[in-house]
Amino acid sequence: MPNIRTVTPEELARQREIMAETAEHNAALPAPPLAFVDTYGCQQNEADSERLRGMLRDMGWGFTDREEEADLILLNTCAVRGHAELRVLGNVGALSHTKRAKPGQRLALCGCMVQQPHMREKLKASYPYVDLVFGPHEIWRLPELLQKLYTPHRGRIYEARDIDGERYEGLPVLHTPGVRAWLPIMYGCNNFCSYCIVPYVRGRERSREAEDVIREARELIAQGYREIYLLGQNVNSYGKDLGSSLDFSDLLRELNALEGDFVLRFMTSHPKDASEKLFDTMAACPKVERHIHLPFQAGNDRVLKAMNRGYTAEAYRRKVEYARSLMPDIAITSDVIVGFPGETEEEFRDTLSLVEEIRFDMLFTFLYSPRVGTPAAAMPDPFGKAEKQARFDALLALQEGISRETQAAHIGNVYRILVDGKGDKPGRLTARSLHNRLIHLEGPEDLIGTFQDARITAAATWNLTAEPLKGEWNHG
Ligand code: SAH
Ligand code: SF4
Ligand code: F3S
Hints:
single chain, alpha/beta, Rossmann fold, Transcription Regulator spoIIAA, 6-stranded parallel β-sheet, 5-stranded mixed barrel, 21 strands, 21% strand, globular, binds S-adenosyl-L-homocysteine, binds iron/sulfur cluster, binds FE3-S4 cluster
């Protein structure tokens, strides 16, 4: 049985009490203390950072994006590949200088990287200027942890419990202003793909009650967010742990029925759990994007089995076929790993074939990175770095050619787009189509947050350019 518990109302009330006391204390200062919160890794981590910021705000903290003026630096870390960890450690090293220049500054690390015992040991031994370290299961305890941090002569604080997760609701969130809002619908992962660290650091699947998700979605829509991004490591297994009859497709339908002008996006979908019902629901719900991120990881069945993915390349092909039969214009994006231990040249060629055949709209390609404690890290890995890099480059080149062609095919098409931000130059804006395709356009900033009908006029490998369908943009 997984070791998951529900945080008690008393425990949450205690955190709220500390937040109120701290807010009172900070309000009496000449200026609010400033926090710099930086996030590494995936959207789940972004969503966690919004929860950390919500608590900081309710404790009377202000925010800065300049490390050198921050009283508290909080890095929310990632462990998915060695590269992510090296980036964090490099920045922590650099921050020792920032800290020396600003007496009283505290440095805190949280998130997936520090849930790993060997990483905490490394930090303890080699990074003595890190003041506070806490794992993903401790996030709701931030008020209490900061109280400890600011207790004189406390010394360094390391807190990470070896549990499978906790359930709680009702702590503050400071959503990043803009068009898009992250909305976690579940936490953790039960899949244990043999290369992946996520289940070890994030614990077992915990779905949020549908009513909590729907309430938060309603609030976000009322606040003017136009794109609600539903998050989970495997959204297709939403609800299984609740023992409820409501699954992810049912949740999508309920959210699709909410009043308002908005779109629903979601990730990630595990192919083994992406059902026909999911694709039927997508096709039937006009507010749900016509895009699925469906990581296939490898095109060879032996490798897929060694990865513990739970599907074959053929089953993957059939799912894509079904989705396209219902929604011919659906965008399909994917993740793939190159250089999994023992993957032969011939097996890798099955990955190339799958990529060639499916013609993904976008492919995120990763070089395999061994993760401490995962089964794959103990598998024999006879192929060298140069060989893996050559395969990686070949895959990238193949996908670039495909992207160029698929992108060019959009020229002349008409799409409904959501203008979501400023572009690279004044007078330029960015937008997304319902297929989550990146689009550049020219127009004034007051278009941000509006839906428009647009015609595609040009295509590059990673973006499209659009003009207004009716001569000028609709200012609403
Ligand atoms: N839950 C999501 C993905 C989470 S991690 C899913 O199942 O699709 C995002 C991507 O990182 C994965 O899809 C995988 O392609 C890649 N990844 C995870 N662990 C990795 C490792 N050890 N080495 C290289 N890539 C990895
Ligand atoms: Fe990692 Fe697999 Fe879970 Fe995704 S589904 S987070 S790749 S273990
Ligand atoms: Fe990284 Fe943790 Fe996300 S390991 S990818 S931040 S779940």
